[in-house]
């Protein structure tokens, strides 16, 4: 019984593969479309894509084209070919603005670009592009059922940009480029006022101001010590019991001692 069942499965698979190969070589576009749909419905998206690629030109403008290009776009998405998925979904939205699938296609097109966003430490050009696409979707379809998912994706992408900006600013502090660090931290705090990294940013801004001041030539030291003193005050104002309090207080004591030299 088991051998018979196994044989039946093998024969079925062999027959299916034969039919698929035949459809690939067949000049009959209707037969190709039927096989492509069959592969798509079976979840064999890679095979379906090969047929959709052959059909795309000849089916453009035909009644079945809407279904074909929707399945084509979905097949790229299901196989994680997100550049191609984004492009195809956008083309679908442009070509079939009255389709019942248009909101889903618009969302998945934008969401495909978010899938291309790399880890925060790498170049974030794709992240910025994804944010633009998702924001356009949110603006165009404010009542869509996909808005919660779009907002979640936007929040995640913004988090990468936030982390990138913070680490870049901190990197200047690490390499002792304190002037650049001060500018970068000022920009970071202004761009991300509600950031969870604010306490850290305020401390490392202070640390940068402090180290720049104490290593300055005498003619610039007093002004820079005052800048450090203000940075310390901003940190304490934000969080008086900061995790950096002990170290910050020690640094501030040095700042006050050095400032006394300029009051005599």
TrEMBL record:
Keywords: Cell outer membrane, Membrane, Signal. The keyword Membrane applies. It holds the Pfam family YfiO. The keyword Amino-acid biosynthesis does not apply. Transmembrane segments: none annotated. Residues 30-217 form the Outer membrane lipoprotein BamD-like domain. Coiled coil: none annotated. It comes from the Bacteria. This is Beta-barrel assembly machine subunit BamD.
């Amino acid at each position: 019984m088991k051998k018979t069942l196994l044989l039946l499965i093998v024969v079925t698979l062999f027959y299916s593969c034969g039919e698929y190969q035949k459809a690939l070589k067949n000049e009959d576009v209707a037969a190709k479309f039927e096989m492509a749909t069959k592969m798509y419905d079976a979840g064999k998206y890679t095979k379906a894509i090969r047929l959709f690629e052959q059909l795309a030109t000849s089916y453009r403008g035909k009644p079945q084209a809407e279904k074909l290009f929707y399945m084509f776009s979905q097949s790229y998405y299901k196989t994680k070919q997100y550049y191609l998925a984004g492009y195809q979904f956008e083309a679908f939205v442009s070509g079939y603005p009255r389709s019942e699938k248009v909101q889903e296609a618009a969302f998945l097109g934008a969401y495909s670009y978010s899938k291309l966003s790399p880890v925060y430490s790498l170049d974030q050009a794709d992240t910025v592009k994804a944010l633009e696409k998702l924001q356009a979707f949110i603006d165009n379809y404010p009542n869509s059922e996909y808005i919660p998912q779009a907002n979640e994706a936007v929040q995640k992408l913004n988090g990468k940009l936030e982390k990138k900006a913070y680490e870049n600013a901190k990197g200047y502090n690490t390499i002792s480029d304190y002037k650049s660090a001060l500018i970068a931290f000022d920009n970071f705090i202004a761009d991300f006022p509600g950031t969870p990294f604010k306490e850290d940013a305020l401390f490392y801004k202070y640390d940068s101001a402090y180290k720049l001041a104490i290593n300055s030539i005498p003619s610039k030291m007093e002004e820079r010590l005052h800048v450090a003193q203000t940075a310390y005050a901003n940190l304490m104002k934000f969080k008086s019991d900061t995790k950096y309090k002990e170290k910050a207080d020690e640094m501030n004591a040095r700042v006050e001692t050095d400032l006394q030299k300029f009051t005599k």
